[in-house]
Amino acid sequence: MRTKNIELVLSPPEPHFVGDGFRVHNFIPGGYRADMVRMNPFILLDYGAKHYFPPTDQVRGVGVHPHRGFETVTIAYKGSVAHHDSTGEHGVIGPGDVQWMTAASGILHKEYHEKEFSRAGGEMQMVQLWVNLPARDKMSAPKYQSLTNDQIQKVLLEGNGGIVEVIAGSYRDVVGSATTFSPVNLLNVRLNMASGADFSFPSDFNTALLVVEGQVTVNKTEEVLTNHFALFQNDGEAFTIETTDGAIVLVMSGEDLKEPIVAHGPFVMNTRQEIVQAFEDFQKGKFGYLAD
Predict the structure, then answer these.
(1) For residue 14, with 0-12 CB atoms within 10 Å meaning exposed, 13-18 middle and 19 or more buried, which class applies?
(2) Coil, strand, or helix at residue 270?
(3) Distance CA 184, CA 206 (A)
């Protein structure tokens, strides 16, 4: 099996706020050579590195806004986030939990700091991914998957090396908890001290990793530090990650949809006309209703 080598390592871009509740570094599409087309089906990656929010009685977050044509995946490492959407779904995720929302034909939602977390204050650390939908599924019905950590399938690594949480796809024949519309592997890798793990994905899958805690060495040669993003070449299948002091790494690999991407704000479709239609449908109230 051929080695999958690193193409580039990105340091965290300058942070910005999404709403007033999420301070994020945008790696996709902001990263050099890590844009929507290069990383399709991963068309956005906002990483909220650890940031302290003082106690408040005010609601911090992002108000009601629309989406169409893709899925949002929110992974919580620290803090607690609440969600409501126009299909009537709602929930709260905390450390180790995942929220997978399929916007598809259109949805309104809002995300904000959970009430008790806001009152107490604390560190927030989150990842939000946008996962593109194939053209055939962009106008399917919206849905919502809330995965608490105890619902996520896990693989124990040998020698007390740690745990691989299989959010989607598979790892060592363990199938992930989330359902997807195209082949997507999303793994939360929690490595103990002096340990490592090996991975294998098809060479033509777009593959990357984000180091959430600690630092790792990839293929025994390339160091990737905390809060850094590593993009792999499409030149092989297998790679290894190792750590000395322990690490948390988000690994993503997905089949390139090889379809046109036309994006504007909260809508990601295949043609300009579909974007125009999305705005018209939103203005006509076809995405449902959700109170501020």
Answers:
(1) exposed
(2) coil
(3) 10
Which amino acid is it at 140?
A: S
Instruction: Count other C-beta atoms under 10 Å from residue 73's C-beta.
Output: 27
- Contact between 100 and 152 under an 8 Å Cβ cutoff? The reply is no
Q: Say whether the peptide bond before residue 15 is cis (omega within 30 degrees of 0).
A: no
Structure tokens at 279: 């705005």
Residue 269 CA to residue 26 CA, distance in Å, equals 21
Pairing verdict, β 267-269 and 170-171: unpaired
Q: Cβ distance 33 to 231 under 8 Å?
A: yes
Looking at residue 1, what is its pLDDT?
86
Letter string b/e over residues 207-234, b meaning 16 or more CB atoms within 10 A of that residue's CB:
bbbbbbbbbbbbbeeeebeebbbbbbee
pLDDT tens, position by position, 105-138: 999 999 999 999 999 999 999 999 999 999 999 9
Rounded distance between C-alpha atoms, residue 69 and residue 270, angstroms: 9
- Answer yes or no: are the C-beta atoms of 169 and 185 closer than 8 Å: yes
User: Which pLDDT tens digit goes with each residue over 209-249?
Assistant: 999 999 999 999 999 999 999 999 999 999 999 999 999 99
Q: Give pLDDT < 70 ranges for the chain.
A: none
**Pick from 49, 148, 24: nearest CA to 92:** 148
Two tokens, residue 128: 């939000």
pTM beyond 0.85: yes
Q: Is the dihedral of CA 221, 28, 78, 70 positive or negative?
A: negative
Which tokens sit at 223?
């160091």
The residue among 78, 107, 102, 34 whose CA lies nearest residue 285 is 107
- pLDDT score recorded for residue 102: 97
